[in-house]
Structures are given as C-alpha cells and as structure tokens.
C-alpha cells in the first residue's frame, strides 16, 4: 500500500490467531500496513516472536503464545491487546491444522483435534472478542473457513466439518451481535500457494488446478486483502457473509 492510500485501519488494534506464517502472517502484515497495531497469537512461541519482529517490533506488533482451544489463553491474548494498545477493534480467527485421512483410517484423536482447533478455537475467539467489542459498540470479526467447508473434500471429514461449522457459527454470531455494532463475516479460501500446499503431491496439485477457472493458485496477499476489506469500514453494511477467494473453483 503506497503512502497515498487511505489507511483503512489507522488507530485500530487487531488480533490475528495462527499468524506466525502463511495466510495468518500475511493478514497481520496487511493490517499493520493499513495502520493497525497487531497482536499475533500462535502456538509456536519462537515463530510468533520472529513474526512480530518482521512486522516492525514493539510499536506495531506483539507476539503472544496462545492455544486457541483453551479459553483462558484466548482471554490472555485479547487482554494483552487491550492492555497494550487500548482497544480491540478487529479479531481474525485463522488458527488451524490439518490431519487428513480417509474416514476409514482417521483416528478419533485426529478428528477431535481438528474440530477443537478450528471450531472450538474460532468459537473461543469469536465469543471472547465479541464480549469486549460489544462494550465499545463496534468491532469486526473475520473467521477463516475454507472451500472444503462448502464442498467437502476426500480425506477431510474432520476439516470439512470444522470449516462448514465455522460458516454456521459466523452467521449465528452475526445475528447475535448485529445490534451491538459488531460485525462477523467469514472467508473461504480455495487453493492458496503456501508452504503447506506446495508440499502436495504433483498429481493432487494438478487435479486441483484443473478445477480453477482462473487457471492459477491464489496468493496469500489475495486472501489478506479480503480480510482487510472485511475488517475495515469499507464493509460496514456486511455481516454474516461468506466471501469465496477461490479463482472461481466450485462456483
């Protein structure tokens, strides 16, 4: 964003979970560039500290180790934002993991873990952020779902269920929070180029590419810009929406 661009989040404080790398880090970076002070939470303390340094250090970004499945740790993450920067204006629930396996071979532990991190983690982030935001009578919550939550993917009964659940949760929370001035929206990314997706077998990659009308994967900044839109006043009359960032895959 060049200096003539409007600083969409100037003076605001944003929390982004799972932001040590990938889409989460890029969202945090785009928010910082748009004028926000950012608190990033991640399970890996070394990675999240390094990420905060990359974003510009203490004036701009803070790193907090956080397990999103534990309500007390989510409380601590959000309290850090409010105590350090004075407000909580934007919450992005991005933390997630995959434990892919067919339904026949998936362990109960891998089902529970994926549901817990994505679904319970997003619920913790949404409810805890909403409790703070409703006092200020304003705020924007952005939940990261996935195209897998729309269409269901082989080997992802756990992940598809969790990501579909995030959509239902987002809409329910949006209805509860609308009259408090808090907006809740979701993003469903498709195939986005990252360390995780580039580790895919070539055959799987090619199969996914064949399904994309734009004939290319998305880049992390193409998800981050949509998150910035939903976090900012540019989307002030939008709540309970699900924006697909997929290159037209599975329309």
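Q: What amino acid sequence fits the structure above?
A:
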């Amino acid at each position: 964003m060049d200096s003539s661009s409007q600083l969409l989040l100037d003076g605001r404080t944003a929390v982004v979970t799972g932001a040590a790398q990938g889409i989460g880090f890029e969202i945090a970076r785009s928010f910082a560039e748009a004028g926000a002070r950012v608190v990033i939470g991640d399970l890996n303390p070394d990675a999240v500290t390094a990420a905060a340094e990359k974003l510009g250090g203490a004036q701009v970004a803070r790193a907090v180790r956080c397990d999103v499945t534990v309500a007390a740790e989510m409380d601590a993450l959000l309290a850090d934002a409010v105590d350090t920067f004075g407000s909580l204006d934007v919450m992005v629930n991005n933390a997630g993991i995959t434990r892919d396996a067919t339904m026949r071979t998936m362990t109960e532990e891998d089902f529970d873990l994926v549901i817990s991190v994505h679904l319970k983690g997003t619920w913790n982030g949404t409810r805890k952020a909403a409790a703070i935001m409703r006092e200020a009578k304003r705020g924007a919550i952005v939940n990261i779902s996935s195209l897998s939550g729309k269409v269901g993917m082989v080997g992802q009964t756990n992940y598809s269920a969790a990501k579909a659940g995030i959509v239902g949760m987002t809409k329910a929370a949006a209805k509860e929070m609308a009259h408090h001035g808090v907006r809740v929206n979701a993003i469903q990314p498709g195939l986005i180029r990252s360390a995780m997706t580039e580790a895919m077998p070539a055959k799987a990659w090619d199969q996914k590419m064949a399904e994309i009308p734009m004939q290319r994967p998305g880049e992390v900044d193409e998800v981050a810009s949509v998150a910035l839109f939903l976090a900012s006043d540019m989307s002030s009359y939008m709540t309970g929406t699900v924006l697909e960032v997929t290159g037209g895959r599975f329309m």
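Q: And what stands out in the fold?
A: The mean pLDDT is 96.
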